[in-house]
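User: Hi! I'm working on a homework problem where we have to compare a predicted structure to a textbook description. Could you give me the structure for the chain below?
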Amino acid sequence: MNNFDVIIIGAGPIGLTCAIEAKKRNISSLIIEKGCLVNSLFHYPTNMTFFSTSERLEIGEVPFVSHGDKPTRRESLEYYRRTAETWALNINTYEEVSNIEKSGDIFNLTTSKSEYTARHIIVSTGFFDKPNLLNIPGEEKQKVKHYFDEAHPYAYLKLIVIGAANSAVDVALETYRRGSEVSMVIRENKLRDGVKYWVRPDIENRIKEGSIKAYFNSELTEIRDHEVDIKTPDGTVTLKNDFVFAMTGYHPDYEFLKKIGIDISRDERLVPKYNENTHETNIDGLYVAGVVCGGKLTGKWFIENSMVHAASIFNHIEKMNKKFTLLKGN
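Assistant: Happy to help. Predicted structure tokens:
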């Protein structure tokens, strides 16, 4: 049967938290994920360490024990697999939702593999799949990367790293330690305040000693096969280059949100419109949860502070289900 009370789009930590909340309340649910389980975390850098401690990433009362003060990417993947198994969650991976239409009180959902119906939909798709583009000549070249896996393939090569936050700093330090010649291009006049406190002294010292060259108040203007142009306060600088890592951040899939009828704010934040108490959007029965709620403000919501979205949503769903039952009884 492909009929559920709730369908959750996205199998990240918050999507899993929503499914666990449904289990607790004996509400039938299905998670549909276009990639693998916790797909965004899987695509984090291989050697990434979380900013948060493991207990702050726990969901579903399942203990998260890590070997160090901060859990690693590998430990997080193992933890969320174990949590999904513990709660016996109903998850379809490698299945992409193509369309959602509402007929009366029922949502008809079409995917790459099947069709489903549900009384409620929760969109918990995050933002990691959609990088913020530079929109400059040459960005389409294969040498330009918006994601980073590990440093070894780039050993001894000339790299440009764009950005001032944690992802850019991590790429710069990891590749530098594998023998890469690293130059950072930063629009601001300094590194972001949110750079991990245990990493900041390292990157600042590497920049100070010149091991990693940093161009502040600067931006990349063109990418060619073997070199790049950087607009700096002192004029244009041309550098020889093998790869560009544009760690410029990411944004929600606005095209999908608009396609299924969710209103988006018209200001620069592009926040999906939803009730902050219930997380219901402008469409009755359709909710948003997790970092997708922040629009371009991708630092507003993260795993630790958006777990509470699940309870808010299911409190409202239970209320609506009771109302529906009473009306049906009449």
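For your comparison, note the following. The mean pLDDT is 93. The chain has two domains: 3-130+250-329, 144-246. Good luck with the assignment!
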